[in-house]
Amino acid sequence: MRDLNAVNLTALRAVEAVARLGSLRAAADELGVTSGAVSQQVIKAENQLDRKLFIRTPTGLVPTDVGREASDHLAEGFAALARGVASIQRRSSDAITISVAPVFAGKWLVWRMGRFAEAHEGLRIRIDASVDLVEPHAGEIDACIRVGWGDWTGVDAEELYPQRVFPVCSPSMADKLKKPSDLANVPIIREPKSMFGWDVWLKPNDMTEDDLAEGPVFSDASLCLDASVAGQGVFLAWETLAADALQAGRLVEPFPGRFRTGISYWFVEPKGQRRSRTVEAFRAWLVSELRTGEQCGISPGY
Question: Which domain range does residue 215 map to?
């Protein structure tokens, strides 16, 4: 640790940022200084370490072998430092940020957040809705709710419940559907970028996608659900998406049978990070909400 006294920490931050971002300008924007100031800090680090960390080219700075290896270690070190600072901040803060997909947030989560506020007065939850696969990061995103197979690296993931799918439609359209084969005679609403297809539900019913009719296509599951409420066709929905519309009678299930897609909802946190009391309170509340009511049942065997 004493060796660190011989090297300026600001200079090391500049080296790591330039190596990671690939240019002085990008590093300057992240660090909130000028490109000239970043260049001076890189030179200072090279002089203090007595090593050439970058090769100067007409297009910018390219890390040397030593610089590339050093930047990898520096990235790990600054990440650990950020976690340490965040752990101190969390002990003095009752506010956390949770990253979720916009569909989950808009169709399910926000409608239930009032119950969390009532049960946990003084704890504040900030919801960051993003379609990107946001990484939980100390001091920025405390935890994420993800849908997938749980095989992400560099994080701790706890399975919340498996996703199950089933057809939904408006009550008026349900009158035309007496048996699964009747799906050939009504519009089928599709989401082209879905993580699963109709085959999940069709195969147990001895059908294939070739048996289905054409219909509207929307790039967002929320739009697909709204289209089904409007009577534009049948949509293959899942429980957190359709629960409230089903309970309100805006949608119905024309056929029995909910089938697992093979993917689940997961509670994702930075790897190895100690869970704050606010994160734990939110996680416990979330699990309780997901287990409440038949619309979101997670009992094994489905």
Answer: 163-262
